[in-house]
Design a protein that fits this description.
single chain, about 375 residues, 2 domains, 7-stranded mixed sheet, 5-stranded parallel sheet
């Protein structure tokens, strides 16, 4: 039997959909709620648990968790039994709660901790767990640079299934990293190494540490920008995603860019900066539109990492021809044939793409690449 401890950070990711660039701290959570943000970490966890439940007859897992939003609430929505640790989780579910529960799970001698959150949650766990037992992250945060997370919630489930079915499980040390959220909101990525935790060694399910954009070929970015600008249509909205690949396009148009947010262009003029999900939805009703996004190096995500403003409701509005993905071929080659990832609560977009997406790799140079 595999004893799995479950910890959920219920506030993880709440700042992304309202363009707050993170969820760390009580003030950010309050601001996100005032802006109408919804909690999604529980939904991400349920994606993982629901997948596991379909295989539950072949799995021998003993679940251990805290009561409420940090654990049992999600397991209650499945038919999988669990045991509670004795911790009266606070209504605010703070980082301290995460650390207390982690210690209680260690005291219960769990074999592995499955947790939902972002880089801040991984840091909280690292302070308690170190390298004492393996961990596996369900990606639910805004910032996910650490290498302890599965590619998607479903991949976290697949990884656990693999562990249950194999007598020998390889493990590896993966980096725990986090960034300065205040600097992040100013368009600066300051990633810091905090240590390493142990994860199952399953590269088909576990993400790589995010590669920095500084490695991107500047000249190729200019080619992307030139080609895209030449093709811009009048009375057509262009939502410009985050990252340095598309930052060059904004520079060519002499427009201010939210490097780590979503901006909107109309008739080659900037009409709205740092949009929230609700603002994107409102604008999408007014004119024909396209979404321009890039690929996260080393991980392959196109939705669900750093662009939570393109949330479930936004993705449900999209047709394949409205999505323009920009990436140089080096990024694709470095994925070693792994698919691009859409990590979303909406599972229908991949099927609408027929599991393949068109990618701009140079000036009027395109490839088709598999996506899931």
């Amino acid at each position: 039997m595999l004893k799995v401890g479950l910890i959920i950070n219920p506030w993880a990711g709440i700042g992304g959909q309202v363009a707050l660039k993170g969820s760390d701290g009580e003030n950010i959570v309050k601001a996100a709620l005032l802006l109408g943000a919804e909690q999604t970490a529980d939904k991400k966890t349920l994606q993982c648990l629901s997948y596991l439940e379909t295989q539950s007859e072949t799995l021998d897992i003993e679940w251990i968790c805290a009561k409420g939003d940090m654990g049992s609430h999600c397991l209650d929505q499945t038919n999988m039994p669990y045991t509670l640790v004795n911790h009266p989780t606070s209504a605010k579910s703070s980082a301290k709660d995460t650390q207390i529960i982690a210690q209680l799970l260690l005291d219960k001698n769990v074999d592995l901790i499955l947790f939902a959150g972002g880089d801040g949650t991984a840091r909280d766990l690292f302070c308690v767990i170190g390298q004492s037992i393996p961990v596996l992250g369900i990606p639910a945060g805004v910032k996910i640079h650490s290498g302890v997370y599965a590619l998607t919630p479903q991949d976290a489930a697949r990884c656990l299934i693999s562990i249950c079915h194999n007598p020998i499980i390889e493990i590896s040390q993966q980096e725990v990293r986090d960034i300065n959220e205040d600097a992040f909101r100013q368009g600066q990525v300051q990633s810091k190494f905090f240590g390493e935790m142990i994860t199952p060694s399953a590269p088909e399910f576990i993400q790589a540490v995010k590669m920095g954009g500084v490695e991107i070929d500047v000249l190729l970015n200019e080619e992307f920008a030139d080609y895209l600008i030449e093709g811009f249509e009048y009375y057509h909205l262009y939502f410009i995603g985050s990252g340095k690949t598309l930052d060059c396009l904004m520079g060519k148009l002499n427009l201010e860019n939210t490097l780590l947010g979503v901006d909107c262009i109309f008739n080659k003029q900037l009409i709205k900066q740092d949009l929230t999900a609700s603002e994107i939805l409102d604008l999408m009703q007014t004119h024909p539109f396209s979404i321009l996004i890039s690929v996260i190096g080393g991980q392959g995500h196109i939705f669900g990492r750093g662009n939570h403003q393109f949330n479930q409701q936004v993705l449900q509005q999209l047709q394949p021809e409205q999505i323009v993905v920009v990436a140089n071929k080096r990024k694709l080659i470095e994925l070693n044939n792994k698919p691009l990832i859409i990590d979303s609560l909406d599972n229908t977009l991949t099927s609408r793409l027929n599991n393949r997406i068109k990618i701009l790799t140079g000036y009027d140079q395109w490839v088709m690449y598999h996506v899931r």
